[in-house]
Fold this protein.
Amino acid sequence: MQVHVSIGENHRFELHEALLVYRDNQASFVTRHDVAVRKDATPTLGPAQPLTVAFIESLVRSLGGAVQAEVLPENILAKTDRMITWWTSAQRRQMFYENSEGKAAELNGLVFPQPPLVWRASNGELNIRALTENKRPEGSTKLAVAPFWNLSDDGRVCTGTMRRPESASVAAIPAWERGFYESAFTHANVGRLTRHVGGFEGLWTGLAGKRLRFPLETLIVLPQTLTQFVRGERR
């Protein structure tokens, strides 16, 4: 009995190994088995072998294809095949507001000074935090709440109809930033976003169209560090 799969005209895959997954209510483990395939006979499994890191890495590479090497610019803070974290210094950006209650409608389309930010793109999602200093953060740097609508308490962006890339590559960074700023800020997902005495609306109204620096003292500092943010750990 021959066991093979043909894809198009260039690939003919034959059965060589099998992975068996064992589970109970609390845990699971996987064993690897060589497969003996004989003509006109049912394939048989060889003895169980433990999984090795080398085997898993080889399997991931074969399933995902070769990952191209990238030159990492200085704004990159961390990178894996499926995740990229970077930071942006204080700058000025146009922002769009669209709220059913009419709040902040007068701010729509204006240009505002921005705080320095840390961005994390992973598996099609975007998370954002703010920095209290306009410099490249370190692993132990404490992050702050990014004072924007459309963000959850863990910094995850409610993407809605936001145009966003699927990849976590260096080349995709401009598209992630553009997608965030070009989408409409529509609602607050959490309670307090800023320490500004005028609250969220007072903060951005005072900055609209101004060539001022963003008031970093109004940011709400979190116990979450950059390392925890990169790892996807909640504060």
In short: The chain has two domains: 4-64, 76-230. The first strand starts at residue 4 and ends at 7. Helices lie at 53-64, 173-182, 199-207, 226-230.
